[in-house]
TrEMBL record:
Pfam families named in the record: Nitroreductase
Protein name as catalogued: Nitroreductase
Molecular function terms, GO-annotated: oxidoreductase activity
Assigned protein family: Belongs to the nitroreductase family.
Residue intervals of the Nitroreductase domain: 16-160
Length: 201
């Protein structure tokens, strides 16, 4: 299995360290019980007022027509690789609180958090998630009859990592490139925004 372990400055959970976003997936369906556990992890994410504004439209490759409908919503750059994913999903946010009907300014935050939980749970059973902003929102809204008060957020490919040999050349290079992140000193502040925190050595 292709691994891209994060080179962390401080210890983190193995599942956080090992998660990455592959573009090559194995030609193997995702076990139903694993898929359900992954979605259950999203279910238990915290959310503003416990509104749980996340929704997922699911398309397994075995359901060919549905899968194609989802695949056709992806932008061409993502279609180049996502075709190998055994499962495609679309995350959707309810943009107003269910109780009050008032706008939920944190709906996107909460959907992202649910997807983060789902991604980490997935790694624990050897499944990897690749989120995509590159999809056509209007097309998705029409294809899946998403009402106006809900917003398509991100497309998601998931499956077991595959052999990058089958990827186009440019993507093959990206697949093996090391994962990079800003350092804590660049985004953890004390007092004034921009002033690095003094908890760092
Ligand atoms: C909301 C979101 C949108 C993304 N959109 C795309 C996309 O359209 N296409 C793509 O190839 N990767 C996409 N990515 C994947 C990121 O490029 C990737 O997470 C980032 O480079 C860090 O790599 P890692 O996840 O392997 O650590 C997206 C990730 C997120 C969270």
């Amino acid at each position: 299995m292709h691994v891209k372990t994060a080179s962390t400055d401080y210890p983190v959970l193995n599942t956080i360290r090992d998660r990455w976003s592959p573009r090559a997936f194995a030609n193997r369906p995702v076990a139903r019980e694993d898929l359900l556990s992954i979605l259950e992890a999203a279910r238990w994410a915290p959310s503003c007022y416990n509104d749980q504004p996340w929704f997922f439209i699911l398309a397994e490759k075995s359901a060919q027509e549905l899968y194609e409908k989802m695949f056709n919503c992806l932008l061409p750059g993502n279609q180049k690789w996502a075709t190998s994913a055994p499962v495609l999903m679309l995350s959707v946010a309810r943009t107003s609180f269910a109780q009050s009907g008032k706008p939920n300014q944190h709906a996107l935050h909460d959907v992202g958090q649910a997807v983060a939980q789902l991604s980490i749970q997935a790694v624990s059973v050897g499944i990897f998630v690749h989120q995509m902003a590159g999809f056509n929102k209007d097309k998705a809204r029409t294809a899946f009859s998403i009402p106006d008060e809900f917003d398509p957020v991100a497309a998601i490919a998931l499956g077991y990592p595959g052999d990058p040999i089958h990827l186009p050349e440019d993507l093959k290079t990206m697949e093996s490139a090391p994962r990079q992140r800003r350092t804590l000193s660049e985004f953890v502040f004390n007092g004034t925004f921009g002033t690095t925190t003094d908890i760092l050595p």
